[in-house]
Design brief:
The complex is a heterodimer. Chain A is an alpha/beta fold. Chain A has 18 helices and 20 strands. Chain A folds into two domains: about 240 residues, Rossmann fold, CATH 3.40.50.300; about 240 residues, Rossmann fold (3-Layer(aba) Sandwich). The chains are: A alpha/beta, B mainly alpha.
Chain lengths: ~500, ~325
C-alpha cells in the first residue's frame, strides 16, 4: 500500500501511509487508540472506497474499492467482534464455506452438501479445529469462532490475513494455540499475516516486523528485534499532549465508597478492590478489552454482580439493577452515548430530567413542566450546551453537546458517586474542557468520582489516583502525580 | 451543465420534502375534511347531526381499544390481544349479570379485574420470558379467545337464555348498564378516556417513563428507570383499556357474542398507527389515535351510505392501514 490517505467528515484519518506485507511473515501494526490501525486495514479490506493512493499487489497496481474485490485478491479480515461475521444459526461447515457459497456458486442453483462438508473439514483441519461440522456456530467458544473465521479465509484462497486484536478475549492457553496456528500458516502455507494488538509482549513473541502508526501517519517500520518495549511505547506516544486540564484544589475527605472483591457474574471483571474518598477522582485505565466498561457497568448494576460487596459511607449497598443503583446514590455516564446515554428522538429537556423526574413531579405524579424546562435552561447555560432551545431534539446536537446532556442528566439527580466511562470519546477539545470542568466541580462538592478512560493523558490530567486494568482486573494502583504515561502503558500492556 | 442539473434536482427535492413533511403532519386531518366534503356533496344526509352522532358512536369502542394499543406502542411494544380481551370482558360482564345476578357496578368491576389476567400473562411472556411482543400477544390472543369460548361453552349469553347445560338463568341486564352503550354516554365515555390517557401520557411522570423506555430501552435502563416495571404497566393498561372497550361493547349489544371483540382489532391498529403522525408528533398518542379512529369511522360510514357492501369494506380499511403504516415508516428513513 502506497501513500494511502483517507478523510472522514472533519478528520484526516490517514495521511500518506505506506505499508507492505510479505507473504510468509507476521507483521505487527501498533498504535494508540485512534492512530488509524483499523482504518488502514479497512481500506485494504475494501470497506472504504474514498481513499487516495495506490495499492500494489505483486508490484502490479490493483483497485480495491469493495469487499468483494479484496476477497478476490485474497485479503481476509478477522475482526475483533467475531460474532458480526458469523451466522449464528448456520452450522460450522456453512460458516466456513460462506464466502465460497456466496461468490463461487456461479450458475449452480443446488448445494452439494457432501462436498461443502468435506471441504470445510479440510480447512478446519488446517486450523487444527477438530469438531463436528454440523454444530451450530452459536454454540462455539470464542476461540473456536475465531478459528472458523480463519478457516473461512483459507477456504476463500486468502493469501493475506488481517487479525484485528484477536487475543483480547482469549485466555492464555487459547492465545498460545492461536500463535501456533499463525506460525504454521505463515511458514507452511506462505500466508502473510497482519497482527493488530495492544499487547506488547505478544508482538515480541510472534511478529517479524513492526509498523507503528501515530495520528494517521507511519512513525517507523523496523524488524521487531531492533526495538525494546519501551521504545515502541515512545514511538506510539510521540510528542507530548499539550492539552490543559483544569486543576481544582479540592480537599480530599474520608473514604465514601468502597468496593471489595467485586466479580461480575460471568467474570467480565474479577476481584476488583477500589475505594474512593470524598472529592477524589479515581482514574481507571487500561487498553481496549481490559474491562473498564464492564467494571463501570458492574458497579452500576447494569451487569450482574457475581460476588463481592460495595459500601457507601459504611453502608452495604444492594445493587441489583441500574434502578436500585440510582436510588442508592450511584450514577453512570455510559460510554455508548447514542445507544445508552441519551434519547436522541427526545428534546433536550426530557433528556436532562430522565434520571430525576421525581424532583419535578407533585404528589400525584404530575410533571411540573415549567420547573422541568427552567432547570433544563439553567443546565444548558451552566454546561454551555450549544442548542437553540431546550426543546431541540438531541439528535440534532453535536457529539460533544450530546455528551454534556448525558452528563447533565446526572447533575440534577444528586448522586454520591459518579462513574464516568470514556466521557470524552468523540468529543472536541472545547467540549472536553467543559466536561473536565464539570467533573472538577462535582469533586469540589465532595462527590466521589470514578473516571474510566483509555486516554492516558486525560487520566494523568484529571485523576488523583490511577487504577490500571489488565485482563479484567486491576493490576496496579498508582499515585497520578508520581507516575508517567510510559509507566501506565507498561502496566496496561501486561508488563510487570 | 452538470452543475445546473444538480442544483435543479436538489431544488425539486426540497419541494418534495416540504410537501411530504406537510402531508405527514396534516395529511390525516386534511383527508378527514376531504372525505367529509366528498361524502356531503355526494349525499347531503351525511352531514346531518344524527349521522355525525352515529359516526362518533360507531367509533367509540374502536377508539377505547385503540388507546390500549397506543399505550402498548409507547414502550415500543405491540398488543395484539386487545380484541380477545374485549371479547373476554364482554363475556364476563354479561355472565355476571345473567348467570350470577350481579348489579351493574360489581359486574363491571369483576369483569375488568378478571380481564387483567391477560395483562399478567402478556407481561410474563414479554418481560420475563423475553418473547417478541407481537408473537407473545398473538399467542395470548388465541388463548383468551379460547378461554372466553370455553367459559360460555362455545355459545353466546343473553338475558333469559338458559345455560348450555339447561340450567335456567334469572339475572337481568340492568338498564343503567345498557345506558353506557347509548349516545351520548358512549361518546362521553370515549372522550373522557382519550383525555385521561392523553393526560397520563403527557403530564405524568409515568407517561414520560413509558415514552423513554420505548425511545431507547438501554438508555432508559442506564438512567435508572425500572424498565421491566414500566413495560409491565404498559401491558396492564392496554388490557384494562381493551377490557373497558369490551364492557362498553356488552352494553351496546346487550349480550355476549362469540368473538364479538375480534373485529375491533384491525380498525384499532389502524387508528393507533394513523395517530402516530397526526400534527407531526411522531409518537403513539391518544389524541392522534382519536383522529385516526375518526378517519376510519368517517370512511366506513360514508362508504356504507354509498351502498358499498359491508363485505367489501375490509378492502378499504386494510388499504387505509397500509397507507398509515407507509406514512409512519417511510418518513422514519
Amino acid at each position: 500500500m502506497k501513500n494511502i490517505s483517507i478523510e472522514f467528515p472533519g478528520v484526516k484519518a490517514l495521511t500518506n501511509v505506506s505499508f507492505t506485507i510479505e507473504s510468509g511473515t507476521i507483521h505487527a501494526l501498533v498504535g494508540a487508540n485512534g492512530a488509524g490501525k483499523s482504518t488502514l486495514m479497512k481500506v485494504l479490506a475494501g470497506a472504504h472506497d474514498h481513499y487516495t493512493g495506490e495499492i500494489l499487489f505483486n508490484g502490479r497496481s490493483v483497485n480495491i474499492r469493495t469487499p468483494r474485490q479484496a476477497i478476490e485478491l485474497g485479503v481476509a479480515v478477522v475482526y475483533q467482534e467475531v460474532d458480526m461475521a458469523l451466522v449464528p444459526y448456520l452450522n460450522v461447515a456453512e460458516n466456513v464455506m460462506l464466502d465460497v457459497m456466496a461468490n463461487e456458486m456461479g450458475r449452480r442453483q443446488f448445494i452439494n452438501w457432501k462436498e461443502i462438508r468435506a471441504t470445510a473439514r479440510k480447512f478446519l483441519k488446517m486450523v487444527n479445529l477438530d469438531l463436528d461440522v454440523r454444530m451450530l456456530a452459536q454454540d462455539l467458544s470464542l476461540a473456536d469462532k475465531q478459528r472458523v473465521l480463519v478457516a473461512r479465509a483459507l477456504a476463500g484462497n486468502s493469501r493475506f490475513l488481517i487479525l484485528d486484536e484477536p487475543t483480547a478475549p482469549l485466555s492464555q492457553t487459547e492465545t498460545e494455540e492461536l500463535f501456533n496456528l499463525m506460525r504454521d500458516l505463515a511458514q507452511n502455507q506462505n500466508v502473510g499475516i497482519v497482527f493488530i494488538s495492544h499487547r506488547l509482549p505478544e508482538i515480541f513473541e510472534i511478529c517479524d516486523t513492526v509498523t507503528i502508526l501515530r495520528d494517521g501517519e507511519v512513525v517507523t517500520e523496523q524488524p521487531t528485534s531492533s526495538f525494546t518495549q519501551k521504545q515502541i511505547i515512545e514511538h506510539m506516544l510521540g510528542r507530548r499532549f499539550d492539552e490543559t486540564y483544569p486543576k481544582h484544589d479540592v480537599e480530599i475527605g474520608e473514604t465514601i465508597f468502597e468496593i471489595r472483591g467485586l466479580t461480575e457474574a460471568d467474570r467480565a471483571v474479577k476481584d476488583i478492590n477500589l475505594s474512593v474518598r470524598a472529592g477524589e477522582i479515581v482514574g481507571v485505565t487500561g487498553l481496549v478489552g481490559a474491562g473498564k466498561t464492564e467494571l463501570c457497568k458492574t458497579i452500576f448494576g447494569a451487569l450482574p454482580i457475581g460476588s463481592g460487596e460495595m459500601r457507601l459511607r459504611g453502608q452495604k449497598l444492594n445493587v441489583k439493577s441500574p434502578h436500585t443503583a440510582v436510588t442508592q446514590g450511584i450514577a453512570l455516564v455510559p460510554e455508548e452515548r447514542r445507544k445508552e446515554g441519551v434519547l436522541v428522538e427526545e428534546p433536550v429537556y426530557t433528556n436532562l430530567s430522565a434520571s430525576s423526574l421525581q424532583k419535578f413531579s407533585n404528589m400525584f405524579h404530575f410533571i411540573n413542566k415549567k420547573a422541568e424546562r427552567a432547570s433544563a435552561r439553567k443546565l444548558i447555560t451552566d454546561l454551555g450546551i450549544r442548542t437553540p432551545s431546550e426543546r431541540q431534539k438531541v439528535a440534532f446536537l453535536s457529539g460533544g453537546n450530546q455528551q454534556k446532556v448525558a452528563v447533565g442528566k446526572w447533575l440534577v439527580a444528586d448522586a454520591d458517586v459518579y462513574v464516568f466511562d470514556e466521557p470524552t470519546k468523540g468529543v472536541d477539545v472545547g467540549a472536553k474542557h467543559d466536561i473536565f470542568e464539570l467533573i472538577g466541580q462535582l469533586a469540589g462538592q465532595g462527590k466521589g468520582i470514578i473516571y474510566a478512560s483509555s486516554e492516558i493523558p486525560e487520566i494523568l490530567g484529571i485523576a488523583d489516583r490511577t487504577m490500571v486494568m489488565y485482563d479484567r482486573t486491576i493490576v496496579k494502583e498508582l499515585i497520578t502525580a508520581e507516575t508517567t504515561e510510559e509507566e501506565i502503558l507498561f502496566f496496561s500492556a501486561g508488563g510487570n | 451543465m452538470a452543475a445546473a442539473t444538480v442544483t435543479k434536482s436538489k431544488r425539486t427535492k426540497t419541494a418534495v420534502t416540504l410537501f411530504l413533511d406537510f402531508f405527514s403532519k396534516w395529511g390525516t386531518i386534511l383527508t378527514i375534511f376531504l372525505l367529509i366534503a366528498f361524502f356531503s356533496i355526494k349525499m347531503p344526509p351525511f352531514r346531518s347531526t344524527a349521522n355525525i352522532i352515529t359516526i362518533l358512536r360507531s367509533i367509540s369502542i374502536v377508539t377505547v381499544i385503540a388507546t390500549g394499543i397506543t399505550v402498548s406502542l409507547t414502550v415500543d411494544g405491540f398488543d395484539l390481544s386487545v380484541g380477545s380481551v374485549a371479547t373476554f370482558a364482554d363475556t364476563l360482564v354479561i355472565s355476571m349479570f345473567v348467570w350470577h345476578e350481579m348489579g351493574t357496578v360489581p359486574a363491571i368491576l369483576v369483569a375488568l379485574a378478571i380481564s387483567l389476567i391477560v395483562a399478567v400473562v402478556n407481561a410474563f411472556l414479554i418481560v420475563k420470558l423475553r418473547i417478541f411482543d407481537l408473537l407473545a400477544t398473538l399467542a395470548t390472543m388465541f388463548i383468551f379467545e379460547g378461554v372466553a369460548l370455553t367459559y360460555t361453552g362455545g355459545g353466546s349469553i343473553s338475558e333469559g337464555m338458559p345455560r348450555l347445560d339447561g340450567t335456567p338463568t334469572f339475572g337481568n341486564i340492568e338498564a343503567g348498564y345498557r345506558l353506557i352503550g347509548q349516545s351520548p354516554y358512549i361518546i362521553i365515555i370515549m372522550l373522557v378516556i382519550v383525555a385521561l390517557v392523553h393526560v397520563f401520557l403527557n403530564y405524568t411522570k409515568h407517561g414520560r417513563y413509558l415514552y423513554v423506555v420505548g425511545g431507547n430501552r438501554e438508555a432508559a435502563r442506564l438512567s435508572g428507570i425500572p424498565v421491566d416495571r414500566y413495560r409491565t404497566l404498559a401491558y396492564v393498561l392496554s388490557a384494562l383499556l381493551a377490557a373497558i372497550g369490551g364492557v362498553i361493547l356488552g352494553a351496546r349489544i346487550g349480550s355476549s357474542q362469540v368473538n364479538a371483540g375480534a373485529g375491533f382489532l384491525m380498525p384499532a391498529v389502524a387508528a393507533a398507527f394513523i395517530g402516530y403522525s397526526v400534527a407531526g408528533i411522531k409518537k403513539p398518542n391518544a389524541i392522534g389515535t382519536l383522529v385516526g379512529a375518526i378517519l376510519v369511522g368517517v370512511l366506513e360510514n360514508g362508504l356504507i351510505m354509498m351502498s358499498v357492501p359491508y363485505y367489501s369494506l375490509n378492502i378499504v380499511k386494510g388499504l387505509v392501514l397500509a397507507i398509515a403504516l407507509a406514512i409512519t415508516y417511510f418518513r422514519k428513513e
